[in-house]
Amino acid sequence: MGIKDAMNKIDLEYLKKHPRSKELYERAKKVFARGVTHDSRYFEPMPIYCVKAKNSRKWDVDGSEYIDYWMGHGALILGHANPIVTRAVIEQARKGTHLGASHEIEIEWAEKVTRLIPCARGGFVEFTSSGTEATMMAIRIARAYTGKRKIIKFLSHFHGWFDYTVVDYNPIYSPPLVGSYPAGIPPETCQYTIVLPPNDVESVEKTIESGDVACVILEPGGASMGLIPIDEVFLKNLRKVTKDYGVILIFDEVVTGFRDAPGGAQERYGVIPDLSTLGKILAGGYPGGAVTGGKEYMSLLEFKVEGRRDLGRISHPGTFNANPISAVAGNACLGLILNGKVHPMINQKGDMLKRGLNDVIGD
Hints:
The protein contains 14 helices and 10 strands. Helix content is 41%, strand content 13%.
């Protein structure tokens, strides 16, 4: 049996075992242009439709049980339906899901961020509703601070789906598409984004010397959730070069934040950026993101004159910024991380999984 025949057989068995998922997918294609609500959930012959999840397991509408290695796109470091996080959310929902006002939990949440993330210590936190929004804000802060326009990013590093950072993003299993950008993005916009190969500090320095570079942004754990690793020496050299030239260094820690270590990749590698973007784990599995960094950068968000119409500052509205539900979930999650028990446990389980996989591959 050839590969194509084998794949067809697998597809047929999959369809046979998931009739309810197939029915839902047919309905979904009538209301969603791509049939799903996230690119990563699309696959042939159809996606699975889940109904519940607990700890490391989830169940679909056809009764199939799965071990979940995806964990909410990386947002669930505590597993599904953690009882402490869930209890906090239920209690807050009874009090109100959106107060349309400031509240104490957002302060507690930010205080925990400043205790955990090295570049946040002595600085400020600005909450957003997603990791993409956090990246947008970080780049705007860098441009406002430096007065320059261009950004440097690295091939296949993902920083959200907005215009400036989606240039030359492609999954690691796809061929490089240098100079590419999705439909709907004007080529004129892309001239402000410079895409370089990772782990090459000389190309970074040469590009910075050409002028008008506001910031360098990267995933410090490597592209595609670390599948293309970043050299630790490169991170240290990149920190030195950006500091020498007065260019803002942004770590996109949406994936690595609170995961690689309680303080993220910057704690793990001992390389402290000027700004860091956060998401996923930050909000305990609920929508949320943040930018954090030194006061000299973050103070560009402060109101500088009486009244709110101050064109000399960076404006940041957002209906769901630090909303109570995300805030209590994030506050509970970071509280558990701060107690020092989460990372020893997940590291032990990760080592166990790696040993098991190596044993299987070795056989």
